[in-house]
Give the backbone structure.
Amino acid sequence: MRTRPGCSFISIRIATAYGGTAMKWLGYGWRVLANLFYLVVVVAVLAGIRDPGEKSIIAVLGLIYVTVRSTAIGQGLGSMASAASLQQQLDQIRYRVDGAFGLPDRSEENTAMNTVRAKLLIDAFFLGIVSLVCLGFFVTAHG
């Protein structure tokens, strides 16, 4: 087996043995752990603030942050879907115009887009929880 410079024999064996599936699930797990960490930090910061006015301001800033991130995630998902659709249409047009053009296999691109989509949906789920936490702290700050 030929190895690449900087790669060990064991890492190549592991990558070929699992076919990348283990790395994909490791990426999902890392994304969940990172978002749990962010959630714990948000709760700790908001719970540590004693001044109700300051707590309200920080909670509103958290809600603004969630809104900006949610908008970016929505735009990213929409852009990925439209890019995939556009590429499919361009392939069909090229196939019909050029008889020698064969329709390419886009399964790798679709798999990569599904992986990114899943990670963005994980982020969106945790952003929803952060928004509820911020909203809860905002409502109870003056109560």
Observations:
- Residues 81 and 113 are 9 Å apart (CA to CA).
- Helices lie at 9-18, 21-48, 52-97, 107-141.
